[in-house]
Design goal:
About 35% of the residues are buried. The chain has a 5-stranded mixed β-sheet with strand order 3-4-7-5-6. Strands 1-2 form a two-stranded antiparallel ribbon. The chain folds into 2 domains: about 10-205, H-NOX domain; about 240-330, Homeodomain-like (Arc Repressor Mutant, subunit A, Orthogonal Bundle). It has helices spanning about 15-25, 30-35, 50-65, 70-75, 80-85, 85-90, 95-105, 140-160, 170-180, 225-235, 245-255, 255-265, 270-285, 295-300, 305-315, 320-330; strands at about 10, 50, 115-120, 125-130, 165-170, 185-190, 195-200. The protein is α+β, with helices and mostly antiparallel strands.
């Protein structure tokens, strides 16, 4: 991932955390608000959201509820075969565990821009390693969540009761897992650079317990991997709320406002121009829908009424929204 990009994660990966919060009865809306996540919607599973805000939320829940292995709880209550059924069915259709883990490692970027997964063989041992790629609050919960997901992928061949003989986690999580009943028969070792699931290498040849005939996987559009594109991806989901200011954008990027302004200046942009560009791109798309009311378009783009949107659109294009719509319809016909 480009080091300047905002770390992004699919909304589908947020949903298990929301479900776990509901199951334990925490004040969901208050915690979402404190984590700056209340303004986001999760209806679109493909939407890109700021990953650091998710781990901040996980950290808040873990601390406020005294659930030190909250990441494990989330992934256990909503396993990957429930949160990503199409992806899991495709992995299960592959011939061997080795192929499934290899493809899983390559395709994690479809779900998160910061997580890096790798499967290797070292002697008679197979290692499925994950670098969570975050230093934000909640990194320890991110590690536990990723660890459980990796175990679940191996379980697609080994069965859902399977647990690895050995795992590697950070020092803090060594203590947590040692107190976790589910890991009482697992050798827990320390590694402060990555978390890892270790198991016998001969398992890599095991057949997958799934569909007899492979089928294709429709890949998602790649998550944005530059500062400009990743900021645009998040901002575009927030225009309707009218709360997407530069302070929030800088916080999403893990930057100070001044640093964000400097990075945008390097791209010959300022924040207000970036907002205008995102609004214009969305306006073009919405106006191509002949039945979409101008008031609805204006609201979706964060304007108080159609008149404000019309003035802005004329400033950008020298055309009114109606003129652009008629012109586009003529070209289409």
């Amino acid at each position: 991932m480009n080091i300047d990009a905002v770390p992004l994660i699919r909304a589908s990966q947020f949903r298990p955390f929301l479900a776990a919060m509901d199951s334990i009865g925490v004040p969901r809306e208050r915690l979402l608000r404190e984590s700056k996540l209340s303004r986001f919607t999760y209806d679109d599973a493909e939407a890109a959201l700021p990953e650091r805000f998710l781990w901040r939320l996980a950290d808040k829940v873990a601390r406020s509820e005294g659930i030190e292995d909250f990441g494990i709880l989330v992934a256990t209550q909503t396993p990957m075969w429930d949160s990503e059924p199409n992806f899991i069915d495709w992995l299960r259709s592959l011939p061997t565990l080795w192929l499934a883990l290899s493809h899983f490692s390559c395709l994690t970027s479809q779900f998160s821009t910061s997580v890096r997964v790798e499967v290797t063989r070292k002697g008679n041992q197979a290692l499925l390693k994950c670098d969570p790629g975050t230093s934000a609050p909640g990194k320890d919960q991110a590690e536990l969540y990723d660890l459980q997901l990796m175990i679940q992928v191996v379980q697609l061949a080994a069965g859902r009761e399977w647990l690895p003989p050995e795992v590697f986690v950070s020092e803090m999580n060594v203590l947590r897992l040692s107190r976790c009943k589910a890991f009482e028969r697992v050798q827990i070792r320390r590694n402060d650079f990555f978390c890892c699931v270790a198991f016998p290498a001969d398992m890599l040849a095991w057949p997958m317990q799934g569909l007899a005939h492979p089928h294709g996987l429709q890949l998602r559009s790649p998550l944005a991997d530059t500062l400009l594109d990743s900021l645009s991806a998040i901002i575009s989901t927030q225009l309707h709320s009218r709360t997407m200011n530069i302070q929030l954008a800088a916080e999403m990027a893990g930057l100070s406002i001044r640093t964000l302004q400097r990075r945008l200046a390097d791209l010959q942009l300022d924040y207000s121009t970036l907002i205008d560009q995102i609004r214009l791109k969305q306006a073009f798309s919405m106006l191509r829908e002949p039945d979409a009311p101008l008031t609805a378009i204006a609201c979706a783009l964060g304007y108080s009424d159609a008149a404000h949107f019309t003035r802005a659109f004329q400033r950008w294009t020298a055309l009114s929204p109606g003129e652009y719509r008629r012109q586009h319809q003529i070209e289409k016909d």
